[in-house]
Amino acid sequence: MADIIQLLPDHVANQIAAGEVVQRPSSVVKELLENAIDAEATVIKLIIKDAGKTLVQVIDNGKGMSTTDARLSFERHATSKIRTADDLFQLHTKGFRGEALASIAAIAHVELKTKQQDDEVGNAIIIEGSSIVSQDVVVTPKGTSISVKNLFFNIPARRNFLKSNAVELRHIIDEFHRVALAHPNISFSFFNNGSEVFNLPTGNYRQRIVNIFGNKTNEKLVPVEETTEVLKISGFVGKPEFSKKTRGEQYFFVNDRFIKSGYLNHAISSAFDGLLKSDLHPTYFLYLTVNPQTIDINIHPTKTEIKFDDEHTLYALLRSAVKHSLGQFNIAPVLDFERDPNLDTPYNYNKIEVNNPVIEVDRSFNPFKETYNSGKQTTAFKTQTLNNWDSLYVGLESKGNDFRKEFSEVHFESEESTESIFGSESQVEQVQTTYQLHNKYIVSTIKSGMLILDQYRAHQRILYEDFLKCMTIKEGMSQQLLFPLELHFSTTDIEIIKQLKVDLEHAGFVFSNIYNDLVEIIGLPINIPENEVRNILDYLISDVENEVPDSNFSATDLLAKSMAKSLAIKRGQSLKREEQEHLVNSLFACKEPNVSPNNKVTFITMSVDELDKKFI
Ligand code: ADP
Ligand code: MG
Questions:
Q1: Residue-level pLDDT at 94
Q2: Which is the closest atom of ligand 1 to the Cα of 101?
Q3: pLDDT per residue over 48-99, tens digit each?
Q4: Which of 86, 111, 301, 459 would bridge 568 by S-S if both were Cys, CB 3.0 to 4.6 A apart?
Q5: If you average pLDDT over every residue of the chain, what do you get?
Q6: Residue 474 pLDDT
Q7: Domains and CATH numbers, the chain
Q8: How far apart are CA 182 and CA 251, in angstroms?
Q9: How far apart are CA 289 and CA 182, in angstroms?
């Protein structure tokens, strides 16, 4: 039989390699920025159009390339950065695989202009799908400009796979942040569709962070510094009180390279143990410097995961350094989330005379003789019970939650409730059709057996359908705010809000101004309490970040989900019986009661038959 194995032509091999290096426009951004840094540029400009789908251009003032190098740079495994395998363990550059430009040129239209310091003129090369279209001499400033146009023009499947502009832009901004945060000594600017998104002057780490995430960030940062034989740590962690529900700013850099490491992330979270509630995420910007010989960067084509020789020591050092900083800056003792404000003594009590408690004992009380609710308890007992009862409801109204309001208006003033607390037991038995388990599940009886529903998910479903209805029927109904609500966001988040502005307005939000790191809101959708707006917008932004499944997502739907997520009664909240019943009834009045807005099961049932089987 004839031989059948052939070497793939270069352009095909390059296309295949491109799949590893270039997944989306942001991958191009990363590679080009890193090349500019390796070329020792001090000023770097990033220009994109249509979230990088039509254009990604990086202009630097670095050392440029000679005529031959300019041509060679597009060859696969062509690199100026390493010569032998040993060099892999002495890396001081971002790139070393010599794959990026070859891969990018295989799947886009690329224009390169470059000139070295001492050359009179520079070189321009145009290359499309790995083939050179032209190479000319040009007049161009010192440095390099590379434009990458029409990404994936020759691989429609990949092009169709790209997400909406909002999502792709978000990825690009993420990459830009990662590179810019690691190099505060380089000045960066970033233009999207002709308008400037970032202009970052040189400075120190703190200044760079503040320039990117907004002035408010400054007061949130706690410095972390530690130098040991194996490792130098510097950077910042966010004060616990500024932690977010959505995974916010978490950055690790190792030798100026952004890396992802679940393991080291865990080291930080554990340093925050006891300071953060479990659903909050710490913010951090940590810069580690290690001997390049102790790490292996070569395990991942995009080099965002690296292998450390001694991960355990690193973990321990990192954890203790962060703990130390939090302690040193007195963060730890101030915060006590579990503190019950009802136990605080109001300040003006310090002048009030202390009354010695009087203990009244009903000596005739016989628990076996009289029923619990006979009304013969001593007054002391009664008042005490009522006080406790009262405190159960402290703060509920202020939740601003509609579901709550409905009830607080209707029943359960604590005085009235006296009757029902001490009312006859048989009466209570009759109305009890629901029971709350561990403050998170509602158990209810149904004809065939029993039903257990997850209160958080169920309420999300109810609110979600409500909001959707409101937004589509009474489109844009909003309540005016007395004073404008000012909310600070990072520039990135502001970009997302700008993209969603029209949809937010449809839902009833009214913006008076959107600045670089601040939004001013003067109207809110009906039913949305002011103190929940921050949460809702945070959820919304994080949903967009987390790549909403398809590119044509409906912003209205997303917004309804975010509002539901943020306003629904959470797990851990105790509910009155009426509230429990209302929850069950409202859920089953929904169009799709079975699942939460995020397609998670809202309830399960267990039939008497199934129960019977368990008792065999
Ligand atoms: P790598 O960065 O892994 O070496 P690339 O394909 O990204 O591989 O780049 C190939 C080579 O082209 C680099 O080694 C470098 O010599 C040269 N090069 C790429 N971009 C620039 C730039 N902006 N300025 C100067 N030289 C560059
Ligand atoms: Mg490179």
A1: 80
A2: 6
A3: 999 999 999 999 999 999 999 999 999 888 788 877 777 777 777 887 778 8
A4: 459
A5: 80
A6: 57
A7: 10-203 (3.30.565.10), 209-328 (3.30.230.10), 436-605 (3.30.1370.100)
A8: 10
A9: 12
Give the residue from 261, 81, 258 showing the smallest Cα distance to 175.
Answer: 258
Place of tokens 């910042």: 236
Q: Which two tokens stand for residue 338?
A: 């579990």
Average pLDDT over residues 370-380: 41
| Sequence-ordered list of residues with C-beta below 8 angstroms from that of 351, at least 6 positions apart, any chain | none
Confidence of residue 351 (pLDDT cuts 50, 70, 90): low
- Are the CB atoms for 587 and 457 separated by under 8 Å? no
Distance in Å, CA 516 to ligand 2 centroid: 32
- Give the ranges where 512-554 is alpha helix by DSSP (H): 533-545
Of 188, 197, 194, the closest CA to residue 494 belongs to 197
Name the β-bridge partners of 281. 244
The pLDDT value recorded for residue 356 is 63
Chain segment 485-499, per-residue pLDDT in tens = 999 988 888 888 888
Q: Per residue in 420-454, pLDDT tens?
A: 333 333 333 344 678 999 999 999 888 888 899 99
Question: Per the structure block, which two tokens stand in for 446?
Answer: 């149904």
CA of 361 to the centre of ligand 1 (A): 88
Q: Quick check: 574 and 439 in contact, CB under 8 A?
A: yes
pLDDT of residue 16: 75
3-state secondary structure 98-157: CCHHHHHHHCCEEEEEEECCCCCCEEEEEEECCEEEEEEEECCCCEEEEEEECCCCCCHH
pLDDT of residue 389: 36
Strand order in the sheet with 122-128: 131-138, 122-128, 109-115, 143-149, 55-60, 43-49, 187-192, 195-200
Give the helix, strand, coil percentages of the chain, each rounded to 5. Answer: 40, 20, 35
Q: Evaluate whether 117 touches 63 at the Cβ level (below 8 Å).
A: yes
Mutate to test the pocket of ligand 1, among 14, 74, 79, 123 (most ligand atoms within 8 A of CB): 79
What whole-number distance in Å separates Cα of residue 61 and Cα of residue 117? 9
279: three-class secondary structure by DSSP: coil
The encoded tokens of residue 17 equal: 């390699």
Of residues 280 and 100, the one with the higher pLDDT is 100
Following DSSP, what letter does each residue of 367-423 receive, concatenated?
Answer: TTTS-TTSS---HHHHHHHHHHHHHHTTTTGGG--HHHHHHHHHS--HHHHHHHHHS
Pocket test for ligand 1, best of 35, 116, 130, 303 (most atoms within 8 A of CB): 35
The token pair at 585 is 């009834």
- B/e letters for 156-172, b = 16+ CB within 10 Å, e = fewer, are eebeeebbbbbbbbbbb
Which residue(s) pair with 288 in the sheet?
Answer: 233, 254
CA of 34 relative to ligand 2 center, distance in Å? 6
Residue 564 in this model has a pLDDT that exceeds 60: yes
Note the helical H segments in 260-304: 262-271
